[in-house]
């Protein structure tokens, strides 16, 4: 696993690499930058996150369904050409824990681990329709701070399916694995102006964007230990859900751009 210092070191190496790339690009494109105005984009966003986790189940009844919550944050994006930029931000990301069994009529999930994440990235974009519409891809790294490191939760329940089968379970949620942890991510999206530039000249730099990102983790950051019994038979099964911090993020951005 990663110690807090290793996570910090990993994040700083990524940040240093991004900044060095930015400096090289700024130096190599100095003459271009003197003749072309570049923009700073400030964006606020919210979206749906679907957590990625692994299930190990001795009984084969546990379902690996998508779990997630709505969350949000903000980012600042700095152009060094009209097609490339560097950026970073702050993002509130809750991780969901859930217990769902196959063919059952209900399920249970809740927010078990709250994190603050600090992403940095490089973005490349291409333009359509006289820059009214933009498509982009990006890649970067994030440092996540576990705000639920000192918490512990336990739950019990019973599920029944249409055939009358029932499952009783208990689940212990462990968020005490990593106080900080690194992530890497990649993604893309589309953005466009909200208002017509000719009709609303003062709002020409207000934009809306749709984005998808995939985050990847390296070490376990949350774990569920689940014991369950089928039809009160007395035969107990053990299952475990392991989270490395990875997830899909589907979000909507509201962006304002100004020249620097």
Order of helices and strands: HHEEEEEEEEEEE
Total helical elements: 2
- The portion of residues assigned to helices is 10-25%
Mean pLDDT: 81
Distance between the termini: 42 Å
Fold and architecture overview:
This protein has two helices and eleven strands; from the N terminus they run H-H-E-E-E-E-E-E-E-E-E-E-E. The chain is mainly β. Strands 1-2-3-4-5-8-9-11 form an eight-stranded antiparallel β-barrel. The longest helix is centred in the first third of the chain and has 25 residues. It is elongated, with a radius of gyration of 22 Å. About 2% of the residues have low confidence.
Give a nutshell description of this structure.
This protein is mainly β and 260 residues long.
Task: Give the SSE layout.
Elements: H1 4-28, H2 30-35, E1 39-57, E2 70-79, E3 84-99, E4 108-128, E5 133-146, E6 152-160, E7 166-174, E8 180-193, E9 206-217, E10 222-230, E11 236-259
Antiparallel strand pairs: 1-2, 1-11, 2-3, 3-4, 4-5, 5-8, 6-7, 7-10, 8-9, 9-11, 10-11
